[in-house]
Amino acid sequence: MRQASRLLSVAVLLLVGMLPAVAGPAVNQFEVKDLQIEQGEVEIEDQSDWAFGLPRRKFFNDGGDPEFDDNEVARQRHSIEMSMGLTNWLKIGTGFELEEERVDDPEPGVSPNKFDSLKVTEIQFEGLVVLVPVKTHGIGLGAYVELQLPKSSDEARTLYVGPIIQAVSGPWSATGNFAFVKFMGGEAEDGEARDEKWDFAYFTQLKYDASEAWAFAIEAYGTIDRLGNSGTPSEAAVAIGDQDQHRIGPVLYYTFKRDRMAPVTGMKLGAASEGDDDDDDDDEGTSATLGLGFLAGLNDNTPDGTLKLSLEIEF
What is the pLDDT of residue 176? Predict the structure, then answer.
């Protein structure tokens, strides 16, 4: 485990060193990552959300053209990802995101609350390591890193890095992902420095597994825009203030599992003969988990409501 921790630290340092804006708050996908990793398991997922009651854009005017806030608001988002467990303690993945996001710098005469069409906005790379595993009881610890590369070179790259803490007691589990988010590169406003700030983001879940198929959860997601005096805020950012976002709400999950069956005998693969050790109990075949929830916004910078829909397929 010490070696895994060192490898993760080296990877983070290399990413920061390799990458060279005015940046909105770091609002990632509404997903809570847990510490369940199985070597060789492949996961394909679609994390989607639709926002309602969007906050109106704030602006600052010092006598010239108005300058608008950098609050990151998307009317809809879809994140398509694929990941694989390289070992029982290390998983890596990649994916891309589509967004219907607000126009960043509207032209004169164009509504500042206008949205672009749905399009690919970034690609993502992530890694997750389990430092202290947890199964049916106890507390586990892990860490993850995610690098997001925007399609437009004008926008800042973002690096998420932080711990995963998971506590399990029978059917109950509480999981928290906590990330420090570094903005890197991007294009600065005229006459201003790039805003390479740090944000803080959290993704938390309290879940009850009612059965093998059904689970009920309360999830909360949030972003604290700009930690301390990090970065170089623009004049508008100083005048308008931070753009923290916070959401909370119920989520329902349904899981369908299909055993891997031998083509003729109808027996589970890996559990065929009498002399074999039953070491393949974790190999439960293909499963699909559908999640549906509604997250209520808790402040003026957050949409009033967000519909969350997810589909995860593991095999």
Answer: 98
Helix H or strand E encompassing 5? helix 2-18
Q: Which residues pair with 181 in a beta bridge?
A: 160, 199
**pLDDT single digits (tens) 291-310:** 999 999 999 999 999 999 99
Reported as half-sphere exposure (CB side, CA atoms, 13 A), residue 189 has a value of 16
Closest CA to 176 of 129, 221, 127: 221
The number of folded domains in the chain is 1
Maximal C-alpha separation, the chain: 84
Residue 64: inside a domain: no
- pTM value? 0.83
For the chain, percent helix, then strand, then coil, each to nearest 5?
A: 5, 50, 45
Strand partners, 178: 202
> Alpha helix locations (H) across 43-192?
none
CB 59 within 8 A of CB 112: yes
Range of the domain at 216: 2-59+70-314
